[in-house]
Amino acid sequence: MVSREAEQRVVVPLLKARWSRQTFVHWPYAPQVVQALLPDGLVVDTYDDMAWVSLTPFVMEAVRPVGVPPTPVGFPETNLRTYVRLQGGCEGLWFLSLEVTTPVMLAARVVGVPYHVGDLLIRQHGPVIRYTGTRRGGYPSYDLAVRPGAPLAAGGLDMWLTSRWRAFSRSGRALWQTPVQHEPWPLHSAALENMDQTLTASAGLPPPSGPPVVHFSPGVGRVRLGVPRRVPRPLKRLGVRRAG
To answer: How confident is the model over 169-179, as pLDDT tens digits?
Structure first.
């Protein structure tokens, strides 16, 4: 079961940070569509028989490896992710792509995390926050604007879509998992004012159908990313797990 609080303590973090002004835009997909994009060893996780893909722009702040002073200036990052598990029920995230402004994050490619460098901006006009980004080379890109609403008492699908405590990646034949720990997300409702994006198409997904589920969070502090660990199990196709 997905939990609101971190499932494990990250005692010795590889990286510390703070995440702020984070928007979550979630679309439902047929499970077989998402499963086709996953490596052997991971199975799509579902809620009410649907897989979900989420576009999540935010600001990385106070980023620092252990023993290094935090960076004085934050930078934008935008992830396209889906929800997966290992055999035995270990849930986590699979990133279809990650957009970032600073090349230093490309170091995570050593364990297969798909970072790309591009031009990303976050601007606020009154209550509306606008996120824009274009990957180096001109494609893909996104332009979305969101109006945050009232605080939510997270539960059910809201918590399922936002509270994940490990990320999976693959490099060569090796599957890796990276633990994460932070305080529970303070979630707000949110309304999309604009949405134009080609990230899903670039990842090999068909166009999203139907209105998305949208959340906003002012952010979480004390983010601790642990050392990636190789998954000690054979890679094989698994069944689909359903929630909800």
So the answer is: 999 989 999 99
Neighbours of 186 (CB within 10 A): 13
Mean pLDDT of 204-213: 93
For residue 162, the model assigns a pLDDT of 96
Rounded distance, CA 126 to CA 123, Å?
A: 10
Q: State how far the alpha carbon of 214 is from the alpha carbons of 97, 172, 222, in Å.
A: 19, 34, 24
Torsion of CA 242, 180, 215, 142, to 10 degrees: -100
Q: Quick one: pLDDT at residue 155? A: 83
User: Does some domain include residue 170?
Assistant: yes
- Among 128, 91, 124, smallest CA distance to 8 is for 91
Indicate if the alpha-carbon torsion angle 197, 193, 56, 238 is positive or negative.
negative
| Residue that has been written with the tokens 């990842």 in this structure | 203
Alpha carbons 164 and 159: distance in angstroms, whole number: 9
Can you spell out the DSSP letters for 130-185?
A: EEEEEETTS-SEEEEEEEEEEE----THHHHHH---EEEEEETTEEEEEEEE-PPP
d(CA 39, CA 73): 35
For the record, the structure tokens of 242 come out as 């359903």
Yes or no: say if 167 and 93 are a contact pair by the CB < 8 Å rule. Answer: yes
pTM, entire model = 0.92
- Return the CATH number at 113: 2.40.400.10
Which residue range is the domain that position 153 belongs to? 15-243
Residue 141 domain-assigned (yes or no)? yes
Decide if 6 is inside a domain: no
How far apart, in whole angstroms, are the C-alpha atoms of residue 135 and residue 182?
28
